[in-house]
Write a structure and sequence with these properties.
Strand order of the largest sheet: 3-2-1-4-5-6-11
Strand content: 15-25%
Structural class: alpha/beta
Helix content: 40-55%
Oligomer: single chain
Number of helices: 11
Distance between the termini: 38 Å
């Protein structure tokens, strides 16, 4: 079966391509290389022994999307990662985010709606919940007003898919709301490659550990948590990638209960920023240089997933601990800085 992975050279996309190829899927990648590198293909080949088909394409160009689907008529499923994803940047450049994250989704769904049968997996986010009223967060938790244009694009994206599925019985879709992806493939052939200053905690930790950054700023030490720092649900990227394959197989095998479903992807365990730092110090044997600074606007106190639905309905469970995920992130950082 042929599967299209948009943004397939990015962090989560590349790990998902590996898991798809390991399961025997034929993969076509679309990526515009705006936040990734074609060299990632070499890492995928090193792990799987197989080179996926790759097309450099900007999904904002509607005619190019139409041409792609005319050429690849045998695509049975799409996993859609391609999107801009930095919260801070989205506040500064909202129109860029709405164009990049919404128009591209619409163009792909238009093409899938023409097919006799189509399966679609959407890369969503726990940001749709905002600061949830209670923990752990279930899929039934209310979707709150978004804290950023990025978060809003995920909410709008889910609405677009849901409404399209209502009027397109041939389209089956699953939105996967992830918590905080981290880590790298255990082979250290692929991992997180942030361009410029990292927007996520873990690559900032590993870059500080290796000496690229002078110190790590911990935003806020006065939150109502056990140690005063924010709590998040950190999930190993390989576990996350496997969930996408399981979700796609669920649709292809027609095991879904409705033609639009939503699942949280997390470990079910919340870890504070200081606990993440301690995990790094444990797996690396290095002391991390950090200081606690003022809170950052838009940050919520805590978010961690209820994984009951993903475990029992989807049939997926995160396998890796925080330490294992952190060790893989550190191994990757050391490899790419050699």
């Amino acid at each position: 079966m042929k599967v299209l992975v948009t943004g397939g050279l990015g962090f989560i996309g590349s790990h998902t391509v590996v898991e798809l190829q390991n399961k025997g899927f034929e993969v076509v990648i679309i990526d515009d290389l705006s936040n990734s590198s074609e060299e990632v293909l070499n890492g995928i080949v090193a792990i799987t022994g197989k080179k996926p088909e790759f097309e450099k394409l900007d999904l904002k160009e509607k005619s190019k999307v139409e041409d792609f689907f005319k050429k690849h008529t045998d695509i049975s499923g799409v996993i859609h990662f391609a999107a801009s994803k930095a919260v801070g940047e989205s506040v500064e450049k909202p129109l860029l985010y709405y164009e990049n994250n919404i128009s591209t989704l619409v163009y792909i769904l238009k093409e899938l709606s023409k097919k006799d049968k189509a399966s679609f997996i959407f890369s969503s986010s726990c940001t749709v919940y905002g600061q949830a009223d209670k923990m752990p967060i279930t899929e039934d938790a209310p979707v709150k007003t978004a804290e950023s244009p990025y978060g809003n694009t995920k909410q709008i994206g889910e609405e677009i898919i849901s409404e399209t599925c209502k009027v397109t019985p041939t389209l089956n879709a699953i939105a996967l709301r992830y918590f905080n992806p981290m880590g790298a493939h255990p082979s250290a052939e692929i991992g997180e490659l942030p361009i410029g200053v990292p927007q996520n905690l873990v690559p900032f930790i590993t870059q500080t550990g290796i000496g690229m950054r002078k110190e790590l700023s911990v935003f806020g030490g006065d939150y109502p948590t056990t140690d005063g720092t924010c709590i998040r649900d950190y999930i190993h990227v390989v576990d996350l990638a496997k969930a996408h394959v399981i979700a796609l197989q669920r649709l292809l095998e027609e095991k879904n209960n409705a033609n639009y479903e939503v699942f949280n992807l997390g470990t079910g365990t919340g870890s504070s920023v200081l606990e993440a730092i301690k995990s790094f110090e444990k797996v690396s044997g290095k002391k991390l240089n950090y200081k606690i600074v003022d809170r950052r606007p838009g940050d919520i106190t805590a978010a961690y997933a209820s994984t009951d639905k993903a475990n029992n309905v989807l049939g997926w469970k995160a396998a890796s601990t925080l330490d294992e995920a952190m060790k893989s992130a550190w191994d990757w950082e050391q490899k790419i800085r050699k």
